[in-house]
Design goal:
The protein has eight helices and 13 strands. With about 230 residues, it is of the alpha/beta class. It folds into two domains: about 140 residues, serine acetyltransferase, domain 1, CATH 1.10.3130; about 80 residues, UDP N-Acetylglucosamine Acyltransferase, domain 1, CATH 2.160.10.10. It starts with 5 loop residues before the first helix and ends in a 9-residue tail after the last strand. Pathway: Amino-acid biosynthesis; L-cysteine biosynthesis; L-cysteine from L-serine: step 1/2. Belongs to the transferase hexapeptide repeat family.
Length: about 230
Amino acid sequence: MSRNSLRQTLLPDTLNRLAEEPGLSVLLGIEAGALTDLSSLMAAALTACLPEGCARDWLRGVTAELFRREVEVLDTALDDLLLTTARDDQPGGAPRVLLFANGYHALLSYRVSRALWIAGGEDLALAIKSQFTRALSIEIWPQASIGRGVWFDHGLGLVIGQTAVIEEGVSLWHGVTLGSNFVDMGEGRHPKLRRGAVVGAGAKILGPVEVGAGATVAAGAIVTKDVPPATW
């Protein structure tokens, strides 16, 4: 089990924030009384991105159960949250990031669809991916491989293709595309971002290229060849 400090603090701190501002429960569709554990909290915060209705209610229950059953998925989501909180550096800490950070919601939605894909629920994973694509203006395919401790700043406009690989500690700004080039269309047709790589806003990385560990891709760049490690 993760030693992440948020296991002890996140639920009570978020409940306190909801109590301090009752309007949050109305706007987010989150009833404090229904938050009985971390799994229900994470599910409620994620599905608050979706329109009210039966689909949101159903997905909230499915997601909460997934987090209870797949402890590793919950641990990874908490590690993502801890890192995002540190990187965002805004007042309010982890509860505010959990409730309001679009980039974190994008990553969390991927964690859920990825877990369902691996468990064999491929159609369900794709349907959930589609829901969050519309809600968050992101496209992250559940087949992609994304490591722990990844940071999506803003998240808006992210496109991450099916065979993309993103290792631990990678940072992506808004509008980044990890796509294919329609020439190399094999199994590994999308980019690989190695540990600690940074990709600036609006950059397009296309095809089976590799961005080396610790490398930085400038905002707006179009990358079609490998980027050596630790280069700018």
